[in-house]
Design a protein that fits this description.
The chain is an alpha+beta fold. It has 2 domains: about 325 residues, Up-down Bundle (Outer membrane efflux proteins (OEP)), CATH 1.20.1600.10; about 70 residues, no CATH class.
Length: about 450
């Protein structure tokens, strides 16, 4: 009996353990935490970081060209048939023999050596060394731009979900009011103090609110899926948003007219690209300058009639040399000139793109300022309108409860309140979205 109990208990604990392992992780994130998570897990951001690391390795390859290049070599030869040379026989005391074969090689030979090569001067290599940090800066700017775009998208979706959550709370409150109104209308209809039309109107209003709630809940679920994808979070994980969004938060800050092009990450990347174009021109121009390199070699060569002569080390002989190589370019069919002209044209393109980006940034900032200013004005208007609609509904409700108001009046007041609430939350989201776009436009997001 005890054995069966232990077996059942063990199986239960194993089942609970497996269930716990399968439970999805739970995340409770503020906006800052969501952005931080996205920065660490978004595939786009991770690939941008890999681009930077790839350039680091490319820089190492460039640096290696200026460092000594050392290589070793070893060889072994076993002549199955030793090669021979011939000489006239009279030179060896054989006047009657026309040619005498002579073997100058041994059957066995071996060699081992080391070679050193060092660039003394190469203009292209030196330009490449100077351009290393600039190339890293370019990929760093692209990485920061990718992170900034991610922050922009996560912030918008995050705040949209916050507003949707508050919207559901208001819908629930409106549903409670509509249910109470339907109950009161039904009771008044039963007692002959209301028409069937009043009950139908209350029913329609309640149904519309319930339908609206279903749609809002769907949008929230869909929004959470989109936010998880943006952040690089597994869809099965549980995510809860802990921040809040208020009217006062949106109103914080001001629309400053001062901004700098260099604050924009995309502009920074283009400026760095211009520097890289200039390095290309320098690199191609340096091809006209002679290059110089040093070569040194040390080799040991062994010979033997039999295998033991090689392994015994008796007939090994050293050889070494040091050489200076100078390469002077004379004429290449205008190849270098074509490369220089091409690099200059690319630099001109980059300059044109910089001028165009300045115009584009001015346009982005101006549009964002207009959009944000308009959104704030509309937000103020919609807030006042919602407060007014709330007051009208409360007064109408009091009159209705006291028997001084009609069912039509309370239904109309509630409809106006619901519309005012929807307009306010739309205006609130438009304002925070416009604020995010403005901060992105001036490079301060």
């Amino acid at each position: 009996m005890n054995k069966k109990l232990r077996t059942c208990t063990g199986a239960l604990l194993l089942t609970m353990g497996l269930h716990a392992q399968q439970s999805p992780p739970i995340h409770e994130f503020s906006l800052a935490q969501a952005i931080d998570y996205g920065g660490k897990n978004s595939a786009k951001v991770k690939n941008a970081l890999l681009d930077y690391q790839i350039q680091e390795q490319s820089n190492r390859a460039t640096t290696s060209q200026a460092l000594p290049q050392v290589s070793g070599s070893a060889g072994w030869t076993d002549y199955l048939q030793v090669p021979v040379s011939v000489a006239p026989g009279k030179y060896f005391g054989y006047p009657n023999v026309k040619l005498v074969p002579i073997a100058f090689a041994t059957q066995y030979s071996a060699n081992a050596g080391v070679t050193l090569k060092q660039v003394l001067f190469d203009g292209q290599v030196f330009v490449g060394l100077k351009a290393r940090q600039t190339a890293l800066d370019y990929y760093k700017a692209n990485q920061e731009l990718t992170e900034q775009q991610l922050r922009q998208n996560i912030t918008k979706v995050y705040y949209q979900l916050l507003l949707s959550k508050v919207q559901v709370q208001l819908i629930d409150a409106n549903i409670a009011r509509a249910q109470e109104l339907l109950h009161n209308s039904s009771e008044m209809f039963k007692n002959g103090f209301a028409e069937r039309l009043d009950v139908d109107k209350a029913t329609v209003q309640l149904t519309n609110l319930q339908s609206n709630k279903i749609q809002v809940l769907y949008n929230i679920d869909y929004g959470y899926l989109g936010l998880k994808v943006l952040m690089g979070m597994p869809v099965r994980d549980s995510l809860t948003l802990t921040d809040s969004l208020t009217y006062e938060m949106v109103r914080q800050g001001s629309l400053s007219e001062a901004y700098k092009y260099s604050d924009r990450k995309d502009y920074q990347a283009l400026e760095i690209n211009r520097k890289l174009n200039q390095f290309d021109i320098q690199r191609y121009k340096r091809q006209y300058i002679p290059t110089a390199s040093l070569t040194a070699n040390y080799t040991q060569t062994g010979y033997g009639i039999d295998f033991g002569d090689i392994t015994g080390g008796k007939y090994w002989y050293p050889a070494s040399y040091v050489g200076l190589n100078i390469n002077i370019p004379i004429f290449d069919g205008f190849y270098k000139d074509a490369n220089i002209r091409q690099a200059k044209l690319k630099l001109q393109q980059t300059n044109n793109n910089l001028e165009a980006m300045q115009i584009s940034i001015d346009n982005d900032v101006k549009n964002a300022q207009l959009k944000f200013g308009t959104a704030l004005a509309d937000l103020d208007f919609q807030k006042k309108n919602m407060d007014l609609a709330t007051g009208v509904y409360e007064q109408t409700r009091k009159k209705f409860d006291q028997g001084l108001g009609s069912n039509t009046e309370i239904t109309s007041a509630q409809t106006d309140l619901i519309q005012a609430q929807n307009n306010y939350f739309n205006a609130l989201y438009n304002a925070i979205s416009a604020k995010v776009d403005y901060q992105f436009a001036i490079g301060k997001l």
